[in-house]
UniProtKB/TrEMBL annotation:
<dbReference type="InterPro" id="IPR005358">
    <property type="entry name" value="Puta_zinc/iron-chelating_dom"/>
</dbReference>
<dbReference type="Pfam" id="PF03692">
    <property type="entry name" value="CxxCxxCC"/>
</dbReference>
<protein>
    <recommendedName>
        <fullName>Zinc/iron-chelating domain-containing protein</fullName>
    </recommendedName>
</protein>
């Protein structure tokens, strides 16, 4: 099988920068539709959370079609699940509320996994959580710890909350030989669509703000939670300990 080389990937991705225009109406339309709906506030928020995350996937697919690229990531390929995942407190609360709506069996599997995870990974977590997530060297140093994401099923190597996985998990894709991810901590071949975060988060913030200003119970401390960032494992630890305060 032939794979795209790094130079060709860069060339095609430059085509996105030069010629592709992201249409914000795809994201805005989701917000407008939900705000006009008759659903209860929690349903509106969680539906918006999942739909806006999914829209990021759709936007990436549109860009891939535009550049004639197809990712070579495959089910069970979890090398990117060892990178640091940093999200806001608002996203963390929506993520946990979404998981609470999973089936009982699925919730139990996640919660049981977390119990084992925080016991088994205690030493690595202590080192990882002490890293400055804004420092440029952190991504590599974190990856070197070989600390799996707390959402990664150690048996199947699949995400246990795939449909609500955070933006960083969706925007890192490899269009080259997948072996490069196995051979290097930070291979140059994969491409990141992290710039899509502003469209997703801007729309999510718009939805929460509109509900908040309308006096609805948005189950987050808005706007403070929208600007408080930390590692995903840190938020899960707070949630497990009951210290992830809600209003």
């Amino acid at each position: 099988m032939s794979f795209l080389k790094h130079e060709e990937i860069i060339k095609r991705c430059e085509k996105i920068n030069q010629s592709y225009d992201i249409d914000p109406s795809f994201f805005d339309g989701i917000v407008d539709e939900l705000l006009d709906s008759e659903q209860d506030t929690e349903t509106v928020i969680l539906s918006g959370f999942q739909r806006l995350l999914t829209e990021v996937d759709h936007e990436i697919e549109r860009m891939e079609e535009f550049t004639s690229m197809k990712p070579n990531c495959f089910m069970g390929c979890a090398f990117c699940c060892y990178f640091p995942i940093v999200i806001t407190k608002m996203e963390a609360k929506m993520l946990f509320r979404s998981i609470e709506n999973f089936s009982e069996d699925r919730k139990k599997a996640i919660y049981d996994h977390w119990e084992n995870y925080y016991e088994k990974q205690q030493d690595k977590l202590q080192k990882a959580m002490a890293m400055d997530y804004e420092a440029p060297e952190t991504k590599l140093e974190y990856k070197k710890l070989n600390l799996p994401c707390p959402m990664l099923d150690p048996e199947t190597q699949l995400c246990m909350a795939y449909e609500v996985r955070p933006i960083p998990c969706r925007t890192y894709l490899n269009y080259s030989d997948p072996q490069v991810c196995a051979d290097q901590h930070m291979p140059k071949e994969p491409f990141s669509y992290e710039f899509l975060y502003q469209f997703y988060f801007g729309s999510m913030n718009e939805l929460i703000q509109a509900l908040y200003e309308n006096g609805e119970d948005v189950f987050v401390d808005y706007p403070m939670d929208a600007w408080s960032y930390d590692y995903l494992p840190a938020w899960i630890k707070q949630w497990k300990e009951g210290t992830l305060s809600e209003v």
